[in-house]
Specification:
The chain is α/β, with parallel strands linked by helices. It contains eleven helices and ten strands. Strands 1, 4, 5, 6, 7, 8, 9 and 10 form an eight-stranded mixed β-sheet that branches. A two-stranded parallel ribbon has the order 2-3.
């Protein structure tokens, strides 16, 4: 009976390996980024990080490490005449957003951002660095702000007679730990850092969009705007969808035909297998764990 129970698992592994081999063959036939075309199509999906890890079934965060490489590859490819960024991101790391935006501005080929759903905070920072932004009239744009909120458990520990034993070398080494309350001095220090990053963010948007800094400062409250509102504020150039994008590529860039080269990461065999297993255990562990994760995922400085 034990041997029979093993066969379904073996069969699943064999099928996964075969599928991976088939995908690898297709990738080698049509290039690492899919079918060859004259427009690079780079997705910027999910939370923006520097080098995030692959998740279930190879889905990934928008990592600057890979996106910068995609931009450089597209810039060097003689077949590519324009670079499109399909953005659906609520933002993320300030550093990663800046790295992606800087790589876009270094590109000499025309760059266009398409925001169909969300291009907020760091996602908008990336979009603003392109030559032209097209957004759906109901999309979420803007949110020019910085956050570094976290849960504090100091009084909860106190209620349960649990003590935080503070052992540090350096006055501010444990500044921001959830196990003790921030002092007024520590809060002022952290707020100063956030204000500086916010200032960098405002400067970038003003420079990228050709807007007066004072105007950007007025709307840099962290508020989100609908695409139609963003157009009125000068945060986007045009309202539209994929058809509007292709019209722009033909009429403004001068392309006769639009054929996309899709830039996406191909997971290794180990990543594919580990993704399936981690996804399996993730779904087993959902429930209270998911709630705690959602409450804590705002920790750290994000745009």
């Amino acid at each position: 009976m034990k041997k029979r129970n093993v066969w379904p698992i073996v069969l699943v592994i064999v099928v996964v390996v075969l599928l991976f081999l088939i995908l690898s063959i297709f990738a080698s036939l049509f290039g690492s980024n899919g079918f060859l075309g004259n427009v690079a199509y780079i997705p910027v999906y999910g939370v923006i990080t520097v080098n995030g890890q692959s998740s279930f079934l190879g889905q990934e965060e928008a990592t600057s490490e890979k996106l910068v490489k995609f931009i450089e590859d597209a810039e060097e490819d003689p077949l590519i005449e324009a670079i499109v960024f399909d953005i659906n991101s609520p933002g993320g790391s300030a550093v990663a957003s800046d790295e992606i935006a800087s790589a876009i501005k270094r590109a000499e080929k025309p760059t266009i951002a398409l925001v169909r759903e969300v291009g907020a905070s760091g996602g908008y920072w990336v979009a603003s660095s392109t030559d032209h932004i097209i957004a759906n009239k109901m999309s979420i744009v803007g949110s020019i702000g910085v956050i570094s909120s976290y849960l504090e458990f100091a009084r909860l520990l106190e209620n349960y007679n649990i003590t935080y034993q503070r052992l540090v070398a350096g006055k501010y080494k444990d500044m921001g730990t959830p196990f003790k309350e921030l002092t007024e001095e520590e809060e002022m220090i952290l707020q100063t850092k956030l204000d500086k990053i916010h200032g960098f963010f405002i400067d970038e948007i003003a420079a990228n969009r050709g807007l007066p800094r004072e105007k950007v400062l007025e709307i840099a409250t962290g508020e989100i705007f609908l695409g139609i509102e963003a157009l009125e504020l000068g945060l986007v150039d045009e309202l539209g969808d994929q058809k509007a994008l292709e019209k722009y590529l033909k009429e403004q860039i001068g392309l006769e035909d639009v054929d996309y080269t899709y830039y996406r990461s191909t997971p290794s065999l180990w990543e594919a297998l580990s993704g399936i297993m981690s996804g399996f255990f993730y779904y087993i562990g959902m429930g209270m764990g998911e709630t705690v994760f959602n409450l804590n995922k705002n920790t750290g400085i994000r745009v």
